[in-house]
TrEMBL record:
<keyword id="KW-0040">ANK repeat</keyword>
<dbReference type="Pfam" id="PF12796">
    <property type="entry name" value="Ank_2"/>
</dbReference>
<dbReference type="InterPro" id="IPR036770">
    <property type="entry name" value="Ankyrin_rpt-contain_sf"/>
</dbReference>
<feature type="repeat" description="ANK">
    <location>
        <begin position="101"/>
        <end position="133"/>
    </location>
</feature>
<feature type="region of interest" description="Disordered">
    <location>
        <begin position="1"/>
        <end position="20"/>
    </location>
</feature>
<dbReference type="InterPro" id="IPR002110">
    <property type="entry name" value="Ankyrin_rpt"/>
</dbReference>
<protein>
    <submittedName>
        <fullName>Uncharacterized protein</fullName>
    </submittedName>
</protein>
<feature type="repeat" description="ANK">
    <location>
        <begin position="35"/>
        <end position="67"/>
    </location>
</feature>
<keyword id="KW-0677">Repeat</keyword>
<feature type="compositionally biased region" description="Basic and acidic residues">
    <location>
        <begin position="1"/>
        <end position="13"/>
    </location>
</feature>
<dbReference type="Pfam" id="PF00023">
    <property type="entry name" value="Ank"/>
</dbReference>
<feature type="repeat" description="ANK">
    <location>
        <begin position="68"/>
        <end position="100"/>
    </location>
</feature>
Length: 137
């Protein structure tokens, strides 16, 4: 059922997500074929607000990271999905968490030109002084 949950989330299929969860799928299943990403990661990245809401209501860990340290908030910010970023923040997503390269949701939103998300993150406690590990010479 875990793979079915991930695939339904990947498609934005809220009915499929609910079905997999009702059949016992682990809402925090870390898909090894997707570098330990969860259904929440893929739904956040693709902007599937309804699926994200279902997963969070089912107990998805809002701050769980994949093997590269990427959280669902970073995925949503990278994808430019402002409504999903807002939902994740309301559910306790930590804007200070960074991936293995030091990128936070704020950094990826700024790099992607998603200034509405930048403002939302700043309004929710993101630290504008955080730097990633990339040096420019």
């Amino acid at each position: 059922m875990n793979k079915e949950l991930y695939e339904a989330a990947e498609r934005g299929d809220s009915t499929g997500v609910q079905s997999a969860l009702s059949q016992g799928a682990n809402v925090n299943y870390e898909n090894p074929e997707e570098f330990g990403g969860t259904s929440l990661h893929v739904a956040a990245r693709r902007g599937y607000h309804d699926v994200v809401q279902i997963l969070l209501s089912a107990g998805a860990d809002v701050n769980l990271n994949n093997i590269f340290g990427v959280t669902a908030l970073i995925e949503a910010a990278r994808g430019g999905n402002c409504d999903v970023v807002e939902l994740l923040l309301k559910k306790g997503a930590d804007p200070s968490l960074s991936d293995d390269g030091g990128d936070t949701a704020l950094i990826v939103a700024a790099l992607g030109g998603h200034y509405d998300i930048v403002q939302l993150l700043l309004n929710n406690g993101a630290d504008r002084s955080t730097a990633n590990y990339v040096s420019i010479m």
